[in-house]
Amino acid sequence: MIVRISDDALALACGADAVAEAFAKKGHEVHRVSSWGMHWLEPLVEVNGVGWGPVTTDRVDEICDGKADDICIGPVEAHPFIAGQQRLTFARAGKTRPTSIDDYEATGGWEGWKRARTMDPADIIREVTESGLRGRGGAGFPAGIKWKTVADAKNPRKYVVVNADEGDSGTFADRMLMEGDPFQLIEGMAIAAYAVGAQTAYIYTRSEYPHAIAKMEEAIRKAAPIISPLHMEVRTGAGAYVCGEETSLLNSLEGKRGEVRAKPPLPALEGFMGCPTVVNNVLTMAAIPHILAEGGAEEYAKLGIDRSKGTMPIQIAGNIKHGGLYEVAFGIPLSKLIYDIGGGTQSGRPVKAVQVGGPLGAYIHPDQFDIPFDYEAYAQADALIGHAGITVFDDTADMGAMARFAMEFCAAESCGKCTPCRIGAVRGVEIIDRIRHGGRKRDTIELAPVMHNAPKDAGRLPEQEVGLLTDLCETMKFGSLCALGGFTPYPVMSALKHWPEDFFGKGQEQKALDETTA
Amino acid sequence: MSSKEQKIGEIIAEHHGREGPLLPILHDVQKEFGFVDAEAETLIAKGLNLTRADVHGVVSFYHDFHQQPDPRPEVQICRAEACKARGVEALMADAETAAGNRVKLKTVYCLGLCSVGPNARVGDDLHARLDAAGLTKVIENAR
């Protein structure tokens, strides 16, 4: 019999290789396929459409006999987690062998590319614009307008760069797509390059994703004759979060420090090597083949709400019972994602907070869970969708500590180019520490007799420190060059707003200690 | 010509035709020697017609590149938000005890396995759903 087991990195981390080996030893034909995205069931074993998960090697015999009922989930495609989704970008997830070009063709692969090649590049760009596709990396900028800017630029040398530097905690859709359906990304890139007139296309990804790199490289080798003469290449970053910011990414790709560039000039006009460059996220590019296939653009634009069109692969992560990838049209409320689909917390405790949009996204309080998944609705709630990662925390989470971590992360990962981020983040950690430790006492310099203009009182109360933190966050938000410094205030201020009790008086013992040593 | 000089020369030659070859070269040099020191920086600078300051600026910017050798096996533990939500911080004391001086623990922010954390990586091997015992075993088995 044919046994299907994923070789996605997450399935491997959960022990898929050992399970696959056990089935192979029994003489079964094992197909290593992409992951369905039901992560709590990995390693998931599928035989004739029926699934078992999570499977350990000692259950292999029972599964061969059609038993192991306690871990059987029945027909995989009918599982409520799968049946409730609207899969476009991840339509092949769980169904194909990732680097099999035959599997890809048999499931509608290259349809968009074939049609695009019969079209005028300007018409392709018009279709992408009409589909309403917005950049899936976080900023939500309309893809068609970006492409048009590059296409209209005068320079004959142009580039397509895919931002696969998915550094946000709580996000894994880019990784899953590269590992599970690499040809779809290649097809999208080929269409983009043809539409704007680029000769070279790069995928810049992270060194933390070795499996995705290997799969992409293998797929590019196999697809080379189809996309020729376009040259395509994978480039690996070196562990710098800020390189997910498009201008840092371009510097890094050029072999420089990953410092952000001031905009303008836009990368669409002066990007890689100073030439016009399309920089799109993996999910944006992967949505392109579907849009370019016959009638795809119209179908795409029908999904979603208002100005948020199409589907979004939402990544449900953190302390959640049923975590994984859930692709659905925009507009789904957060409560449905967390409770109905996610099944609540893994620990069984009440949900305390949900961070949407990675480490730079706001912490959302359960009172706001009816907010629909839509760019504008989130902006209105002083939050952001980002790369659509949602990370769930239970009531044991210390939100003051999480706010401190946000500042600490920004300080560790700042590229150093602009002052609000480079210095603001360090000061942010210090202020949060002082709030948690009962305010600030006069320091040794202020106590020195020559400092006669120094404040005579005891320093600052925690409440006064909050004013300082608010000011600092405003400065970072409006003064930083890129999203790292500019968005770090979201997790910090949202945590302070909803859970102030997690900030004050956390370190009374520390305060007592300070007083005795003062 | 020392063998190091020769090897670095070969790596540079291999990447020379690429656009922006410095990062791929640094990755290969680090893979070959385990670190990128001042000597390597000088050789790469010469090969690419850059100043050593240019190369050093890049080496020191990225978390992946090390400037000194460290022969210990490395275990990367994800301590970003999603793994924190699943309790990685509570495992760190045990992890440090298990590591001692033999294993180097490195904090990374996100291995992309956020729904099955806490996670760790040793080389290209990934480990998910770790508890204290599981993480201790991963660290003890790291070579």
UniProtKB/TrEMBL annotation, chain A:
Superkingdom in the source lineage: Bacteria
This protein's record includes keyword Iron: yes
SUPFAM superfamilies registered for this protein in UniProt: Nqo1 FMN-binding domain-like (SSF142019), Nqo1 middle domain-like (SSF142984), Nqo1C-terminal domain-like (SSF140490), Thioredoxin-like (SSF52833)
Pfam families: Complex1_51K, NADH_4Fe-4S
EC number of the protein: 1.12.1.3
Cofactor: FMN
PANTHER family: NADH-QUINONE OXIDOREDUCTASE SUBUNIT F
Protein name, UniProt field: NADP-reducing hydrogenase subunit HndC
Provenance organism: Croceibacterium atlanticum
Organism lineage string: Bacteria, Pseudomonadati, Pseudomonadota, Alphaproteobacteria, Sphingomonadales
UniProtKB/TrEMBL annotation, chain B:
Keyword Ligase attributed: no
EC number(s) given by UniProt: 1.12.1.3
GO molecular function, one term: 2 iron, 2 sulfur cluster binding
PROSITE patterns: COMPLEX1_24K (PS01099)
Top-rank taxon, per record: Bacteria
Keyword DNA-binding: no
Keywords: 2Fe-2S, Iron, Iron-sulfur, Metal-binding, Oxidoreductase
Coiled coil: none
UniProt cofactor(s): [2Fe-2S] cluster
Family: Belongs to the complex I 24 kDa subunit family.
Protein name listed in UniProt: NADP-reducing hydrogenase subunit HndA
High-level lineage: Bacteria, Pseudomonadati, Pseudomonadota, Alphaproteobacteria, Sphingomonadales
Protein encoded by which gene: hndA
